[in-house]
Design brief:
The complex is a heterodimer. By secondary structure, chain A is α+β, with helices and mostly antiparallel strands. Chain A contains one helix and three strands; from the N terminus they run H-E-E-E. The longest helix of chain A is centred in the middle third of the chain and has 6 residues. By secondary structure, chain B is α/β, with parallel strands linked by helices. Chain B is globular and about 55 Å long. The chains are: A alpha+beta, B alpha/beta.
């Protein structure tokens, strides 16, 4: 099953995502890793939540 | 000590008068080996004219994304292919964020919306949100809702908004390269209305957007002319999908020169670390900036990106023996 990068949304095997992994230290995920949909992301002073309409809500 | 630093010592440290545009250009051109001396002077100016206290603030995005404006640095513009989606925060979550912010010792909580200016729906949400926060949390509420009409300025003042943020963003001469959907003059007009209504004015900008050193000095001079209560200083964090998404990250040395120059332009203002410092300065640079003119921080996360852990910043302030400004002293 294909998984997707939470930062750029591209398939995990499509390219090297080392830079994306570094970015994700300082950014919430933007794409659902299961379906590639852009998620609705809310950042708060001490956390974040990211919602995929199909796969539910991730929280920090 | 170089000529410009000698003059700055006399004029700014001793006299409390900010440097001129030409003098700020000289400061921004100081060689790297002069930066420690520059930061030391800027810190002395801050300590003499502002004191050792640091003002701590948290920010929250009430309405994220989908903005009609085209600010080239911003991932929330609906005109770019940014991955940021539009989302609204509900009032219970807003109050929870205010409570979490107050728990850090912060005295300011700024509610931000990605809009050209607020419509009635947003004003209603802000009104209800501020009321709920005031009933639950002991913290000053600030807002950043874009350009305002006089009626909206008056409404926000009546709601008890303590401070209103509206950045100039860039020097007047560089502004058309940063934003094309509204003008520098429109921004300036909102800032003047805010101050005339009795709210504190928070007005800063971003550096590292491809502007020249002269334009950086110009921004500092124009902010000094506006004389805001607080100046948030952002360093560009290039966002994917935006026109500035491929710009290089500003060097830490240039960032530190800029911090010191802003302090020497505005000896008495609250000069706040805002977005991008983690990327541009890192942990060591963050410390250097606090010892080089900065006297306020945003703790925790930003609007769409994450910041340093709030506890790390609070520990750093304790290590530097810089007390957090208490709420009573801000009223």
């Amino acid at each position: 099953m294909t998984t997707y990068c939470a930062h750029c949304g591209q398939p995990g095997e499509a390219r090297d995502h080392t830079v994306c992994d570094v970015q994700l230290v300082m950014e919430p995920p933007r794409f659902c890793t299961s379906c590639q949909r852009r998620m609705k992301v809310q950042v708060t002073p001490r956390g974040w939540s990211a919602a995929c309409v199909e796969h539910g809500v991730l929280t920090s | 000590m170089t000529d410009i630093l000698e003059r700055a010592k006399t004029q700014v440290l001793d006299g409390g008068i900010g440097l001129s545009y030409d003098e700020l250009v000289e400061v921004l051109q100081l060689p790297e080996d002069q930066i420690p001396e520059l930061l030391e002077l800027a810190h002395a100016v801050r300590m003499k004219h502002c004191g050792p206290e640091v003002e701590v603030e948290g920010i929250i995005s009430l309405k994220t994304g989908g903005c009609p404006e085209d600010c080239h640095f911003c991932s929330q513009s609906g005109q770019f292919t940014s991955p940021v989606r539009s989302v609204w925060l509900d009032i219970p979550q807003l109050v929870k964020a205010a409570e979490e912010t107050a728990a850090t010792g912060a005295t300011e909580f700024c509610i931000v919306a990605a809009v050209r200016g607020p419509d009635e729906r947003l004003m209603t949400q802000v009104r209800e949100g501020i009321k709920a926060i005031q009933e639950a949390v002991d913290i000053n509420v600030a807002c950043s809702l874009g350009m305002l009409t006089q009626e909206q300025v008056d409404d926000l003042a009546a709601m008890g908004v303590h401070r209103y943020n509206h950045n100039l963003e860039a020097a007047k001469s560089y502004f058309p390269q940063v934003v094309t959907t509204h003008s520098y003059e429109e921004r300036w007009a909102t800032c003047e209305m805010v101050r005339e209504a009795g709210m504190e004015l928070c007005c800063g900008g971003l550096v590292g957007m491809g502007e020249s050193l002269e334009q950086r000095a110009e921004l500092a001079s124009q902010l000094a002319e506006l004389d805001p209560h607080e100046v948030p200083l952002n360093f560009l964090n290039p966002r994917p999908g935006t026109p500035f998404g491929d710009l290089p990250i500003m060097s830490s040395q240039d960032a530190l020169r800029t911090i010191a120059a802003f302090r020497l332009a505005m000896p008495r203002t609250i000069l706040r670390y805002a977005g991008g410092r983690e990327l541009t300065l890192g942990d060591l640079g963050t410390r250097d900036g606090l010892l080089g003119g900065i006297n306020a921080v945003i703790v925790g996360n930003y609007l769409t990106t994450l910041g340093r852990d709030a506890d790390e910043d609070l520990a750093l302030l304790a290590d530097l023996k810089m007390p957090i400004r208490e709420l009573a002293k801000t009223l």
